[in-house]
Amino acid sequence: MKLTLEEATTGDAPALAKLRTAVAERLTLDFGHGHWSSKASEKGVLFSMRTSRVFVARRGGKIIATLQLATKKPWAIDKSYFSDCRRPLYLTGMAVEPSLQRHGIGRAMLEDVRRIARAWPADAVRLDAYDSAGGAGEFYAKCGFREVGRVTYRKTPLIYYELLLQDD
C-alpha cells in the first residue's frame, strides 16, 4: 500500500482529537484500562503541534491515521539504551482509525517516516512501546525496528525500539 503522510494543520485538531479518542476507546475495549485509555482533546492536539511535527494520512479527505515526530526526547525514554547518533527523531502518538487497523496503513506510515526522517535530516528513529498485550512492540519489530531495551518507567513496562537510517 502506498501512503504519503502530510503535516497536520491547526484546522485538523478536531479530527485528530476524535481519531485519538476512538483509538484509545478501542484499546480500552480490547485490553482493559491502561495508559492508552485517555481521551484526547483539541487543546492537547494543538499542544503536540507546538512541541512536535504531527503528520496525518488521509483517505477521501478524511484523516485516517496520525503520528508525531520530534527532536526532543520524550520523558519515558532513556537515551543510554540507544545507538549513538547525532540526529535522532522520536516517534510518538501513532494511531490508525480502528476500523482500518490491520490493513497495512501503519506499515505504510512507517515506510513514509523513513522518507520524512531522511529529509529532516535525521539518522535514527526511536520510540517506546508498552510491554503488554495492548502494546505495539511486535508490530514495530515486523516493520524493521530493532529492540534495544526493556525498562519499567513509573510502574509502566516499556520496550525501546530504534531504526537506524544508515542501515536502510
Topology (elements, then pairings):
Blueprint: E1 6-7, H1 13-31, H2 42-51, E2 53-59, E3 62-70, E4 88-96, H3 105-119, E5 124-130, H4 137-142, E6 146-153, E7 156-164
Parallel strand pairs: 4-5
Antiparallel strand pairs: 1-2, 2-3, 3-4, 5-7, 6-7
Helix pairs in contact: 1-2
What's the quick description here?
This protein has 168 residues and is α+β, with helices and mostly antiparallel strands. Helix content is 30%, strand content 30%.
Number of H- or I-type helical stretches: 4
* Annotation, overall tally of beta strands: 7
Spatially, the strands of the biggest sheet line up as 1-2-3-4-5-7-6
User: CATH first level: which class?
Assistant: Alpha Beta
Question: Could you say which overall geometry the principal axes of the C-alpha atoms support?
Answer: globular
Radius of gyration: 15 Å
Give the termini separation: 19 Å
Mind explaining what this structure looks like?
There is one protein chain. The two termini are 19 Å apart. The chain is globular and about 40 Å long. It has 4 helices and 7 strands, in the order E-H-H-E-E-E-H-E-H-E-E. A 7-stranded mixed sheet has the order 1-2-3-4-5-7-6, sandwiched between helices. The protein has 168 residues and is an alpha+beta fold. A hairpin with a 2-residue loop joins strand 6 and strand 7 (156-164). The chain has a single domain, classed as Aminopeptidase. Helix 1 crosses helix 2 (42-51). It has helices at residues 13-31, 42-51, 105-119, 137-142; strands at residues 6-7, 53-59, 62-70, 88-96, 124-130, 146-153, 156-164.
